[in-house]
Specification:
Elements (H helix, E strand, L loop, with lengths): L1 E3 L4 H9 L4 H8 L1 E7 L6 H10 L3 H4 L5 E3 L6 E3 L9 H7 L4 E6 L9 E5 L13 H9 L15 H26 L3 E6 L1 H13 L8 H22 L6 E5 L3 E4 L2 E4 H7 L12 H15 L1 H14 L6 H8 L4 H4 L10 E2 L6 E4 L8 H16 L6 E4 L1 H4 L11 E5 L4 E4 L8 E2 L10 E4 L1 E8 L6 E2 L3 E2 L3 H8 L14 H4 L8
Parallel strand pairs: 1-7, 1-8, 2-19, 2-20, 5-6, 5-7, 10-15
Antiparallel strand pairs: 2-18, 3-4, 8-18, 9-17, 10-16, 11-12, 12-14, 13-14
């Protein structure tokens, strides 16, 4: 299995028509393809953890990159999907040699094979523990950590580093296949998502207008998929190749500042009235300058200098003071506040730091907010309670409501950067031009899978039981999804 973080047919199909992606084109010709619908929120951590376990975010209790941790404005990075069991753990317990490369966990852990973590730590412990040093010696290069925050001034170096990281994952996979001869291998190419976030607008231009650096990156992605498959097939025996993504990608058009909306509607209250005049004037000036061609480039240069690991918050603080929820939390009247959005930006939480609401009042407030949001005139807001979208009921850390705005083309934000709740036209100086969508990709080819076929949309939760069936291991009864192996094989049963 190869995971292409954020992979989408909306990008791949036009590039294939332009003569690119020869490996993925061949995989489609000799196998099967379908959309793969993500979980919600369609974010990297809940999506990949749901993929690995076959459990939805409501069962895992994981709804974003971060979770509440202490008082107001306090959070921490999600620690792990465990104690839930990944499907490769289930394979390992049955004696199947497995390998996991670049999956987002903080540290490797014992199993029948190897784990090389990725994403959540710059130098994470591997399993077996000496494996990191072994890979560096064998490949002649130290492990490349997660890409840093993007700045326009660093474009050439940033894309080159992303390209080298993708190639390194393939080199590691080649070495590990030869060294361990796994019967199951998962390799994640995380950099695809980062590049799509930053450069979506350019990637979706006519092919001739896309920069050569971006073309080189995606050619390396396609070639790395080929190298990984060839390295695995050299182990021998019948085999199946799956290429999947955790979610899709698309253009980002606008921004919705949920805490601003909550304050305007009276659900979030400050200890003292907050004067937004300075912010309103400053942001109107910035937006006006961004709309003018001669000044747009200047604004981007200024923002590029101000940008830091906090993203656009550096600019907001520069022009009009504190903007992050963490900084504003101490100014919120937690005894009078009913609801807020933090730390999952797609979510609205009922206040857990003030006097508790009676159950009948909680239900009334949730219904009232839902009604108002669904009637919001500036965007199409879909509102869900956890019970609407999850079978699992591990909801202690869950928001009371989840928001999907304009089919995810409008991004939900928790900060206070702008004085109004809706920013309908996203300025060019904001970070990136792409955002997640629900539909990712599923490609499958191998022994017993007829070629050149398209299937109906599967769900990310279907992957775990499907892989287990392909490997001849029964899925856990707790898994939510259903196996799509009959679709892969044309109804003929197990492929390999």
């Amino acid at each position: 299995m190869v995971g292409l973080d954020g992979g989408t047919f909306d990008l791949f199909d036009p590039w294939i028509r332009s003569g690119e992606f020869p490996f993925l084109r061949d995989l489609m010709a000799r196998g099967y393809r379908s959309p793969l619908t993500s979980v919600f929120p369609a974010k990297t951590i809940p999506a990949w953890y749901s993929f690995a376990t076959g459990l939805d975010p409501g069962a895992l209790g994981i709804f974003g990159f971060t979770e509440p941790n202490g008082g107001p404005g306090k959070s921490r990075i999600i620690q792990t999907f465990r104690p839930a069991e990944a499907f490769w753990d289930r394979l390992s317990r049955r004696g199947v040699p497995v390998g996991v490369l670049n999956f987002p966990v903080r540290a490797g852990y014992p199993l029948n094979g190897f784990v090389v973590p990725g994403m959540l730590s710059d130098d994470p412990p591997t399993y077996p523990e000496p494996l990191g040093e072994e890979l560096a010696r064998a490949t002649g290069a130290p492990h490349l950590p997660e890409l840093p925050p993007y700045r326009d001034a660093d474009r050439a170096e940033w894309i080159e580093r992303a390209t080298r990281a993708v190639a390194q994952h393939a080199t590691y996979a080649e070495h590990l296949c030869e060294r361990y001869r796994p019967s199951f291998l998962f390799t994640l190419l995380r950099e695809t998502d980062r590049v799509e976030h930053q450069h979506w607008a350019e990637l979706t231009r006519p092919f001739g207008e896309v920069g050569e650096d971006l073309k080189r990156f995606w050619r390396t992605v396609d070639d790395s998929c080929r190298r990984i498959e060839e390295a695995f097939r050299r182990v021998g025996g019948p085999s199946t190749t799956l290429v999947i993504s955790d979610h899709g990608h698309g253009a980002i058009r606008s921004e919705f500042f949920t805490n601003r909306w909550l304050a305007q509607e009276g659900y979030l209250k400050f200890k003292r009235p907050v004067d937004t005049r300075r912010r309103r004037v400053a942001t109107r000036v910035l937006l006006a300058l961004d709309r003018l061609g001669p000044t747009r480039a200047l604004v981007r240069k200024v923002v590029d200098r101000l940008r830091s690991a906090s993203g656009d918050g550096g600019l907001g603080h520069f022009v009009a003071g504190e903007v992050s929820f963490e900084a504003m939390a101490e100014r919120i009247d937690w005894d009078a506040t009913v609801a807020y959005s933090y730390p999952v930006p797609e979510g609205i939480y009922l206040n857990r730091y003030g006097p508790p609401l009676p159950p009948e009042d909680r239900a009334r407030v949730v219904a009232e907010m839902r009604r108002k949001l669904e009637a919001f005139g500036q965007a199409r807001v879909e509102v869900y309670e956890p019970k609407d979208i999850y079978e699992g009921r591990n909801l202690e850390q869950s928001p009371a409501l989840f928001l999907k705005i304009d089919g995810l083309a409008t991004e939900s934000r928790m900060d206070f950067s702008y004085a109004e709740a809706m920013l309908p036209h996203r300025p060019s100086y904001f970070y990136g031009s792409g955002v997640h969508r629900m539909d990712g990709i599923l490609l499958a080819a191998g022994d017993g899978i007829p070629g050149g076929r398209r299937g109906p949309a599967a769900n990310l939760l279907d992957v775990a039981p499907s892989v287990l069936e392909l490997m001849g291991v029964p899925p856990s009864p707790a898994m939510v999804g259903r196996s799509f192996v009959p679709e892969l094989t044309g109804g003929g049963g197990r492929a390999a």
